[in-house]
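Obj: model holo form, ligand = magnesium ion.
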Amino acid sequence: MCPILALDRHTISSIHSGQVITSIESIVKELLENSLDAKANNIDIRLVDDGLDTVEIRDDGSGITKTDCCNMARRHHTSKLTTFSDLDNISTYGFRGEALSSICELAEEVYITTKTEQDKVATCYKLDRKGGIKSENTAGTMYRSGTMVSIHRPFVNLPVRRQVAEKARTISIKRIQELAIKYGLSHPFLRLSLHQLHSTLGQLRKQPTWVKPSTSSLLEGVRIIYDSTLASMVEECSLEESFDQQLEPDVTSSPQPIRLHCLLPSKLSDPSYIFKGDRVFIYVNKRPINYAKSDLKEMVAMVRRRYKRTLDLDDDVRKVPFMYIDVQTGFGDYDVNIEPDKSVVMLLHKDRILTLFEDLLDRIYGSFFSQNRQNEVLEK
Ligand code: ADP
Ligand code: MG
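Output (holo structure tokens):
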């Protein structure tokens, strides 16, 4: 066997980048989250050849100051976190300073055009593979503040990854659309669009654009993204823990009330509509979560059980009903550092969340116990 030696920095960095940015979808997710962290109200996603040629995201957020630009794509450089203890209060999607540097490492070319309110004109930076600035030019195309990130030929240095991305085009576009819906729903104010272009014989052919306009509420978002029938069959409900419920003798962290904001199928809904497709939206503080791998899996099972029991549906319906659940809890009360894409959470107060959720389900479907008693009377 060879002797044990330290890997060189370039190799470490390349391996790491491939873990952070795994697909075209993960590029879109990271850029979308950066735009939301910059408080954008308008985000346009543009994909050329399903993102294999170009992924471009333009926002009207804060922009990046001239002094920050030299560090914006450097590995582990971030404007969102300074010390480890800050993690307890972090409200942004990003905080590791890894996305832009990984993208630079894996793509053929990366450009960032940005303008803050103070800047007279925008500047377009061409970045090198280490996330440093290769060149910069004045760009007169931005009127207000904002940022546009353009990525050309992602995964050009990882032939296997590129080939997999080529083969997975259809599923990748479907996932990007789902991603847009997830963030679009949880940010009603946000106007979000997805433009797809395909190059054939040197010409760009446009596909119809998907747009979620700015809406006044979550329910309005459901009506626009899906349809008014679904919007009429769901019930919006918010619930916050009472002071007594917050008290847990073994908890040392400062108790902060947990709040739930949900949109669940109403008692009068049509199950054939409610069970259509895969429309389960679970968030922690508006961060979309992979519920199947997280502590929140139980909440999905609870809704399914309650809804089916209320409508007296057969138990062999495997599908999951439409649901939107956002668990709002203290930023220090959960850990998202489990997967590189932060889609899995571990929760400190899982039991408190489930108890509160049981109360919320009682409000929508009636008390579990009275429901059981009613069923018993009917059976007799
Ligand atoms: P992180 O989001 O974890 O900080 P990124 O690599 O995604 O790391 O971004 C690095 C930094 O670049 C961010 O901390 C932010 O200051 C800046 N940045 C990136 N994208 C944008 C954007 N769209 N608008 C404003 N600032 C941005
Ligand atoms: Mg980020």
